[in-house]
Amino acid sequence: MNSRVTLGLAGLFLVGAIIAGYWGLTLGRQPVAAEPVATPVAVPVEPAPAAPAAVEDPSRQPVVVLLRDIAPFVKITAADVAVEKVRTAPAGSLGNVDQVIGRTPWRPLSAGTWLSDESFEPGSQLSRMIRPGERALAVAVDEVINVGGQLAPGDYVDVLLFLRKDEVNPQPSAQLVIPAVRVLVVGSQTGLTNDGQPTGAARSDDERLKQEQQRMAARSVVLAVPEPMLSRLMLASGAGVLRLAVRSADEQQLAKYWAGQNDVATRLDTPRRELLEFSQLSLATPPRPMAVAGAPAPRKATVEVIRGAETTPPTP
């Protein structure tokens, strides 16, 4: 190949290389487009739905209830009471704390007790278990008189009297002293007051078990005795042995009492009160005394009358 041709090709390649290098240098100086930065998009946050306002049940009624035990003659403060909504408010209950704050009870009140005007009236629980014309009288009992320990407040019993044979009573006798009297207290267990409120109600299983044991082992019971029969029961308790006979619950005597009929003992009372002597229990006349052979015949009683010096013959 000719040297001139070679030099021409070399020059051509040199020029091409210069052009390519200039082009590459120009492209390297151009600014690099910045990569787009992702812009955070604010997502609207919906507020949490508000809790629906509590809708009071119009059928519930407010009742003032004690939060703690209150001793007698201690004024009630706002910290001692609260208002509770109940479906059925007890009769006579108070529904506003302003009606009780500053008032003083005459007897101890237990926590959880609903308050009424009677809570601040004087008188013991026992006096509020009877009505005018009745008297609460305690009678000593044992396991037999207490009907085997099964007697409970609210039962109706007949009071029986047994008289032994002695110098005054030639024959043993038994009689009905008072019929249908209401049992108020057995041992330490009491019934309901006249306003239907329980007295001394147990608040735990242990207390209920203790009250049940005391009821079964009671040594006294308290009866609601009509006032006219009070002295009769007192005399009977000292004259002989008393027994309590429980009447059937089917007679509904307690329901009649709550309805205002508290004269059942007076209505069932009779003048004789079923007095029975021992000789009458066999439903036959007493046997005649047997004659003993060889015994002298009984002499007839004679009366001799003396008038001064005269004597009247004895009359047979």
Automatic annotation (TrEMBL):
What Pfam families does UniProt report for this protein, alphabetically?
RcpC, SAF
Species annotation? Pseudomonas jessenii
Q: List each copy of the SAF domain by range.
A: 61-121
Q: Superkingdom, according to UniProt?
A: Bacteria
Gene name, Swiss-Prot/TrEMBL: cpaB
Q: Which InterPro entries match?
A: Pilus_assmbl_Flp-typ_CpaB (IPR017592), RcpC_dom (IPR031571), SAF (IPR013974)
Protein known as: Flp pilus assembly protein CpaB
